[in-house]
Design brief:
The complex is a heterodimer of chains A (323) and B (419). By secondary structure, chain A is of the alpha/beta class. Chain A is built from nine helices and ten strands. Chain B is of the alpha/beta class. Classes of the chains: A alpha/beta (323), B alpha/beta (419).
Chain lengths: 323, 419
Amino acid sequence: MLQYLIIQLDDTSTSYCHYTNIRNEKRLISLDDLRAGILWAMKENLMIQYVLPDYELPAEYIEEMESIDNSKIVSSHSTMINNADVIVLNGWEKGFTFRENGIYVLRITKDSLFAYSEEIKMVLPAVTRLNIVITDVETFTDADCETYKIVLESFAKEVEKLYVAGKSPQLNLLTDRMMLDKMNNCNAGYESITLAPDGCFYVCPAFYLANEDDDFGLGKSKYNVGNLIDGLDIKNPQLYRLDHAPICRHCDAYQCKRCVWLNRKTTYEVNTPSREQCVVAHIERNVAAQLLTSIRTYGEFLPERNGIEVLECLDPFEKANKW
Amino acid sequence: MEEKIKKHNSSWQDGIAKNITFIVTKDCQLACKYCYLVGKNTKERMSWEVAKQAIDYILDNEEDFKEDSVIWDFIGGEPFLEIELIDKICDYIKVELYRRNHHWFNSYRFSFSTNGINYHTDKVQDFIKKNREHLSIGITIDGTQQKHDLNRIWKTPEMEQGIAPQPQEERGSYDDVVRNIPLWLEQFPGAGTKVTISSADIPYICESVLHLYSLGIHEVNINCVFEDVWKEGDDTLFEAQLMQLADAIIDGEYYKEYSCSFFTENMGKPMDCVYENTNWCGAGKMLSIDAAGNFYPCTRFAQYSLRDKKAWIIGNVNDGIDKNKLRPFFTLDRCTQSTQECIDCEVAGGCAWCQGENYDAADTPTIYQRATAICKMHKARVRANNYYWNKLYRKLELEGIAQEKAIEHTKMSDNKNNC
C-alpha cells in the first residue's frame, strides 16, 4: 500500500535515482497544488518527501512545506543543503566535504565509479549512509561486471575493516543485503507516488521528467497516473507489486532497486527487469554474502540471520523454466 | 471406445519447432470483415535483401536458435501474392542449411496459410511440386457459401481509400476458393481448414462445419475471434448452434472420421495456479519479420495487426534481437496476467487468449493484462462441449452394451444349437 508521497517541487529539482534530469528551466509547483498535495498526503496517511531545486524557495513555500513532518532531498549545490535529510551528488565531486552523520546519494556512471573507487571508499567512515546509484546500469557489459565485482570487493574490505573497528557503516550496495530478509525495492507505483509541478501524479519523477516526445518503443515514456482534482488513477496497479513481477518474486537480491523506470525502458514492461539490472544486483548480492561470512569470522554478527549462499547464476531469468 | 473417435492431427513437430514467420506482404485480394490486420496495404512488400539479411542473421546465430526443428512460415496479407520471392527465400534457406551443415538441415517445413485464390496457378503449383515433402498449406474456407461470403469478400479499389462498399456491391470469394479445394486435398489429404467465428457468423456454424466435411475436409479448426465484438445474446445462439452441430456429428457418426476443434475433451475444468500456470500463447517463442526488417515476438505485434498500440519491436535484421525485449514473454504465466475472476473460474480449462490481442486491448502497454471479451462465448462452448461428450460417450457405451449383448446372444444360440 501507499506509504510515501514524493513531491517534485520544481522541474529543476535534483534527480536522486537512475533517471537523469536535464531540465534547467524553473517551473515551481503552484502554492495551491503544494497545499493540496500536503492535504492529500495527510488524508491518505502518507509520509512526504520533498525533492528540492538548488535555488532558494520563497518563504511561503517553506512555511507550507513545514506544516507537516517531512524529509528533504537536495543536491550538493542546493541552498537548502543544511536542512537536508538526504544530499545528492551528481557525479564524483573532488574536494566535496561530507558531513559527519549525513546521508548521501552518489549518482555516478560506471566508468566514474570504477575510476574513483578508492576515493569513494574513503567516504564510508565519515558518513551515516552512502547510497550509490549507477546511472548507466543498462549499459553494463560482461567486462564491466568483472570490474564491478572487483570494485565491490574492495568496498567490502573497507566495510569489514570498519565493522571490526566497532563502527556500522552503511553502503546500500553491500550492507543492505546483509540486513534484509525480504525484498526492499524502490516500489514506485505501489508504496510511493510522485506529485509533479503540473499538479499530476506520476509513478516516479522519471515518468514526469521524460520529454513529451520521448518514446522507449511502445508509446510515450511520460504518462501521469491521475491528478490532484480527480485523484490517483493507476492503470494496471498490480504490475508495480512484487507478486506480479515473475522474475523478481523468485529472486533474493533483496537490495535491488527493481527500478520500474529502467524496466520500462529496457524490457517495455514495468514488472520485468533487464538482464543487466539482474546481473548487477546479483554481483552486489554475492559480494554481500562473502562480506557477511568474513565479518562473522571475527565474532557474532547478526546472529538472527542465516548466511547468504553465493550463487553462480547471476540472472534468475535463466532459471525461469524451473519455477 | 476412444479409437472410434477421430483425434485432431497435431501439427508437424508441434511445440518443439521454432516458428519463424516472414510477413512477405501486407496486401491481400480479400478484405475479410473479421480480419485483425487493420493496417493492410499494397506498399509494404518484403524485398529479397531484407529476407536474405533475416535468414543470414538467424543462421549465423545458431546458438540462439537451439530448437530441433524449424517451421518457416509465410504470411500476409496473402502470401502467395509473393510466390516468386518465397521461392527464392526457400531455395536460399535450403542451400544455406546444407552449406552450413546446420542442425535444421532436413528438419524444416515451409508453412502457409492462404486464402486459396491463387492456389491453382502455375507458379504456386511449381513451388508445391518442388517442395512437396517439406510443405504444410492451409486454405481458409469458412463454410457454406453464405457464411463464407458474409465475411470473406473481395477488396475493392475504394477500400484502399477507406471507403467501404455498399452491401449490394460486396463480392464474396467462395467460388474462387472452393474450386481449388479438390486439388488441395489431393495434394494434402490430411489438411485442415481454419474457420473464424465472429458475431454475424453464429447462425451458420452448424451447417458450415457439415458443409466443410462434405467437401472432404476432415479437420475443421474453428475458433471465435478474441476481439470484443460479441453482442447481447450471442452466447445463447452460439450454444444452440454448437448443440445442433453436436447432434449432427453424433447422429451422422461424423466423429469417426472428422473432427471439429470446438469439441475438445477435458476442457472446461478449474485450473490450478501452481500446476497449471503456463501461458497459453507461444508469442515470444516465435519470431516474425516484416518488410522493414523489424523483428516481432509474433505477427500480431506488428503495427498492421494493432488497433490502438504501437508495434512491439524486439530488434531488426541489422542489430539482431534485443533479448531484454523478450524477457516478459518468457516469464509470463497464466495467473499473473489473469483477473481474479479468471483465476477462480470453474470452467477455466481451454479458455484461450491471444497475447497480441491482450496487448492491444490492455489499459497500458503491457502483455500482462488478459482480455476477457471471449468469456461468455467460452462458457457457452463449455456447456455445449459437455453435452457433446456426454451424449457421444453414452451412445458409444450403449452401442458397446448392445454389441456385448449381441455377442452373448450369439454365444447362447450357439450353445443351444450344440445341445
